[in-house]
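Support case: user asked for a sample of complex input and structure output to validate their parser. Sending the pair below.
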Amino acid sequence: MSDLPPPSTEEIRRRQRSRALLMGLLLAAFVILVYAITIAKMSVNR
Amino acid sequence: MNSVTATADTAYPADWRDFFALTKPRVMSLVVFTALCGLLAAPAPIHPVLGFTAILCIALGAGAAAALNMWYEADLDSKMARTAGRPIPAGRMDRQSALHFGVGLAFFSVILMELATNRIAASILATSILFYVLVYTVWLKRRTPQNIVIGGAAGAFPPVIGWAAATGDVTLLPILLFMLVFLWTPPHFWALSLFVRSDYAAAGVPMLPVVAGAKTTRRHILLYTVPMIAAAIAPWPLGLAGFVYGAAASALSLGFAVLAVQVLLNRATEPAGMKPEKRLFAYSILYLFGVFGALVADRWLVG
């Protein structure tokens, strides 16, 4: 493994940024989904 | 299993695309489709948001099971050309990330299913994930040539979960849909394993063609095709589905039977001569889409 290039900090940061962005979007989608489920369950049980 | 070690790329955090690849998105399409058909064929209407959430949970549960399968089988995957490019054997992700992702996704999907629909659907979803990971992947796959028969049950759960999400119970029709997918899985995978036999042999997986030979496998394909067709057509004479479904299921099943007989009559031992097996494999996917699609069409178009 010694002949392999060391990991680039720039690439590590880029991947962390893209994962953090996606996680943020998924969390936002989850919040909207839970809200929609709550409204749907209230309308079903009415 | 620990023979798969980190390579240069695992020095980087895995890309989100690799996490997505862990969920086997192509397999998921069939899971989502059969689950959606189970949900739409159910006699009780479900609120669209809750229906969407149920299908999402089934897809996430299938993705979790696939990720845990890839976590456990990284050593096998690295030995087969078909699977060597997956995130862990290719060195783009470490095994622990796959394990955490799979377990987290499994819990998330089951809890969300319980919150959005009902406990029956959530319980069957949890059972299907545990069945695929523990019974199929960990216990049977490396030990018996019948691995695919029992493992097929895991893939047969989605239409039952879809039905249970809508109705809150399980009746004869979803059980017949379960039987159909359960009996469909062996001919589908054995057709594939006949023409990728060398891959499985190299990895030491005891698939039927590896341990019992092509002739026995071809006989078994036809052997499972007969009860599979019975399960496919049964909803019609039992009055659980109408003429549209009955006619479509009968016609599609006839095509399956013809191809299964062609496979039985084939004597080829090399992949180049296995056109009937390749045709049956491709047709089997179309078959399942067709039969389930006909069930929904029968329910919604004819009533």
